[in-house]
């Protein structure tokens, strides 16, 4: 945006595709808000307890540590509704699991929180631990060596070499392969690279594959994890924090996200009345901003099923979901 000859001039750029633009020709903020809601959807009523004090830090490393915090909050009469667990609760950063040494009795831990009239939030990220080493994508198309001069920014830093990256990535023991990774790969529910082979990036677990939330089957697969009895996330007193869902990838690009030429399988129903799916392939550059919202949608729909049909009973419980990545319409889910 700039002022030129007494006028306000706007300029938009788009790397690919067509820009859908909505202009609100009014200074009435209430009217604008109503139009925004009509376009992008209404947020659900929040879980009442989520509006209270939430205790969150990086990290609580053990069950004992979390229960000590819970006891101190009670002892000092500090009103607290939620306690949060970041990535260290999981077994080798494999979400929907617990580190058995650090958190030997997660159900017992949760019961202690509930008895204190508190609830638990666990982090669940979109990357799944894998065994393959991470390779840098050194193709010209995957990198960003310059930024639009109009942004008046410096040239982007060079990427790490493949050798540097391979040395920096944790080698995963075969017995630590995540069941979620195995199933997602077998069912072809993960993101592919430009050659339509498995995309392996680097995140908290080290080498990781990424759930392809543009695939309708992947959304259903991921959402179903919240209903599995062996997961503590199936308990209605456990709520969800979707993090790193821009998506974050630690190597390959200075932007620290997925290479722009990664391939997504975009599937959608022909119509609301049809069960037939249309399937297309899109590059990540076309759909980047939608990755986080579709992860939130997957989690939200899984939590809704969990909280309405828990143990065969009909319930109407509100879920709590926090998403780090947020886009136009994300408020419908989190």
From TrEMBL:
Gene3D superfamilies: Glycosidases. Pfam families: Glyco_hydro_31_2nd (PF01055). It comes from the Eukaryota. Residues 43-333 form the Glycoside hydrolase family 31 TIM barrel domain. Belongs to the glycosyl hydrolase 31 family. GO terms for molecular function: alpha-glucosidase activity. GO terms for biological process: carbohydrate metabolic process; N-glycan processing. Keywords: Glycoprotein, Glycosidase, Hydrolase, Signal. InterPro entries: GH, Glyco_hydro_31_TIM. The keyword Signal applies. GO terms for cellular component: glucosidase II complex. This is Glycoside hydrolase family 31 TIM barrel domain-containing protein. The keyword Signal applies.
């Amino acid at each position: 945006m700039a002022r030129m000859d007494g006028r306000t001039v706007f300029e938009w750029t788009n790397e690919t595709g067509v820009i859908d633009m909505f202009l609100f020709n009014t200074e009435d903020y209430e009217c604008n808000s109503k139009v925004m809601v009509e376009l992008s959807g209404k947020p659900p009523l929040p879980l009442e307890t989520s509006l209270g004090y939430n205790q969150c830090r990086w990290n609580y490393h053990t069950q004992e540590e979390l229960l000590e915090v819970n006891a101190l909050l009670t002892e000092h009469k500090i009103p607290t509704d939620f306690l949060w667990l970041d990535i260290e609760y999981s077994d080798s950063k494999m979400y929907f699991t617990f580190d058995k040494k650090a958190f030997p009795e997660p159900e017992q831990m949760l019961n202690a929180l509930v008895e204190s009239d508190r609830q638990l939030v666990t982090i669940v990220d979109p990357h799944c631990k894998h065994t393959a080493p991470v390779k840098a994508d050194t193709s010209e198309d995957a990198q960003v060596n310059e930024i639009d001069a109009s942004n008046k920014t410096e040239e982007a830093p060079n990427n790490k070499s493949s050798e540097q990256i391979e040395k920096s990535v944790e080698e995963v023991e075969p017995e630590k392969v995540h069941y979620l990774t195995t199933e997602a790969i077998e069912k072809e529910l993960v993101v592919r690279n430009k050659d339509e082979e498995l995309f392996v990036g680097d995140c908290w677990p080290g080498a990781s594959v990424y759930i392809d939330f543009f695939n309708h089957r992947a959304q259903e697969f991921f959402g179903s994890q919240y209903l599995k009895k062996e997961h503590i996330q199936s308990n209605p007193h456990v709520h969800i924090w979707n993090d790193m869902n821009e998506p974050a990838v630690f190597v390959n690009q200075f932007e620290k996200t997925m290479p722009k030429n990664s391939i997504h399988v975009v599937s959608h129903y022909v119509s609301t009345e049809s069960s037939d799916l249309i399937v297309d392939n899109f590059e990540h550059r076309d759909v980047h901003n939608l990755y986080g919202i579709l992860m939130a949608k997957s989690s939200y729909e899984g939590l809704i099923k969990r909280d309405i049909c828990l143990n065969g009973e009909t319930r109407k419980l509100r879920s709590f979901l926090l998403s780090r990545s947020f886009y136009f319409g994300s408020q419908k889910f989190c």
